[in-house]
């Protein structure tokens, strides 16, 4: 993907942030590439206060105190199974056990200085649980950008390969959304609003402009969209989205 790189947290990243600020960009989202040796079935590295993401947040906030740092809240970069949640022996994703880990991850990121935590895992009830966990630790001002409508998609392929976070077995269709079911986006919108989300996000972006419009028409919250790696690759290659 031309122009896209994995960056070292101490050097390359700081250079990119400096250049981005020069052209008026002041908000940044972090996605980690975690060594296999630190991955586990329950993703415990996700809430290591001295892990890659917390160290990076602290560095960025020290060098650029006024920037806005968004973080990703999900277990897949830290999971030896490559899934967003904890996987039972029979392949079932354990929702509540995963949410418990996500709360610890979000608090760890907030403790490091994150401004916005962004649960991308698609577990049920995670927005409310994260809000409660943040508030209990005194992080009332840390916002939540929820991946409200995250559809199962092949467009995620290049990103997963870059982070080596492809599922080791199965797929993510049991917890990511069915592209044919637009009504589910309305249910997720209502749930996320009720649980305390501050921003609602649609992913992928361009193939789901109708869903972005649907959320805009049915919510007063800010609506965000994520153009993912596969979309970017097609556009750079001169392709088209059908």
TrEMBL record:
PROSITE patterns: D_ALA_DEHYDRATASE (PS00169). Its EC number is 4.2.1.24. It catalyses: 2 5-aminolevulinate = porphobilinogen + 2 H2O + H(+). Pathway: Porphyrin-containing compound metabolism; protoporphyrin-IX biosynthesis; coproporphyrinogen-III from 5-aminolevulinate: step 1/4. GO terms for cellular component: cytosol. InterPro entries: ALAD (IPR001731), ALAD_AS (IPR030656), Aldolase_TIM (IPR013785). It comes from the Eukaryota. This is Delta-aminolevulinic acid dehydratase. It comes from Aegilops tauschii subsp. strangulata (Goatgrass).
